[in-house]
Amino acid sequence: MSLAQHWRFLEGYLRKPQVVGAVAPSSKALAQALCEPYHRYPRPAAVLEVGAGTGAITRHLGTILGEADTLDICEIEPTFTDVLRREVLTRADFASPVASGRVRLLEAPVQDLSHENRYDFIISCLPLNVFELNDVQDVFSALRSCLKPGGILSYFEYMGARRTSRYLAVGRRRSRIRSVSSFLSQNIREHQFDRRVVLRNLPPACARYLRFEP
Ligand SMILES: C[S@@+](CC[C@H](N)C(=O)[O-])C[C@H]1O[C@@H](n2cnc3c(N)ncnc32)[C@H](O)[C@@H]1O
Prior knowledge:
The protein is an alpha/beta fold. The protein has helices at about 5-15, 15-20, 30-40, 55-65, 80-90, 90-100, 135-145, 160-170, 170-190, and strands spanning about 45-50, 70-75, 105, 120-125, 145-160, 190-200, 205-210.
């Protein structure tokens, strides 16, 4: 990713820190880790990427998207959807899937996606740790409704971020983080079937793989 793309991402964060939730885009190593279960998934597969930002994961998906697979890209921020439309979906990897309508850009919050769209594999890059508990619950409920039975949710969080914030935060922020953390921990305990630690990311991250139904 170019310096200009890093700068645009940082600008997005400075404008709306509670929506973007990270100062730098994900690394290639994290993109690879998030997509790992997709390689083992039966094809053709319907894929949803949520919170695409400036396309750090989308670019990688373009290189591995199967010939009959579909990809919906969900992003809430208009400045980022502009970047995705102009600089990512115009890449050679996307020429054929875009021309055949197998790739769509959904400019909306994930909570508003129609549940008629069902996916085998969802990658979420949403900054859950900066959201209010009810937003995190709504996001999980939307993601679960969009998954086909047996489908996989792959998402990441920064290593130790929840633990550190729990200790450093005070007042209302502390209780928000505690409740979000306990909701996420419960989902991890009940539904996570594997995970990958990715040190080559700023900050280091953990990619988590969840399955809600057999
Ligand atoms: C941490 S950034 C990740 C960007 C990129 N995928 C990456 O890994 O570098 C989170 C992204 O989620 C988007 N986002 C936040 N809330 C959202 C929502 N409710 N629905 C869809 N996208 C959302 C933000 O605009 C931002 O682009």
